[in-house]
Amino acid sequence: MLKALIIFFGILALGYAASVGTASDASEVCQSQDELWGGEDIRKFYFCLDGKVIADECDSGYYFVNNATISGCLPSDLMKPSCVNLDTKVPDCTGTSKLQPQAADDVASFYLCTSEGATLLSCPDGKAFVSQDGYLGCFAWSEWRSLRNCVDD
Ligand SMILES: *[C@@H]1O[C@H](CO)[C@@H](O)[C@H](O)[C@H]1NC(C)=O
Asked: Record's InterPro entries (predicted)?
């Protein structure tokens, strides 16, 4: 447990250093003149206006999809289950939940038990929370997608 926490905070610290000055291609190059497109961050989408890329974000609880049938923000219960957290609970801060950060409904946030009780925290910019297959912490969206198997069909 302790090891997992140390790794977790290590990743958090790394995240702050790494997120400075990086931007993904999705937000820089016009990919379409008349359609929205998504990026690694499942909450975000982009469109082109006068040759410039405009970034926007789905409302809280909605996620961006662009496939043969849909292009837009969908509520989490209509998303691929591997891409969303449904029905997460505020941890009671006993047992395992006391020692490890826990997933929250917002995939880029997590609960941490502190002396104040369960606290909802956000991952650093450009990262989202993973707790599966031995991975625990905030990971870059591209890693988050592959670890969670949340990739386009
Ligand atoms: C498009 O994405 C939605 C949400 O993930 C899914 O329900 C639908 O089946 C997808 N359509 C295609 C053609 O993949």
From this structure: Chitin-bd_dom
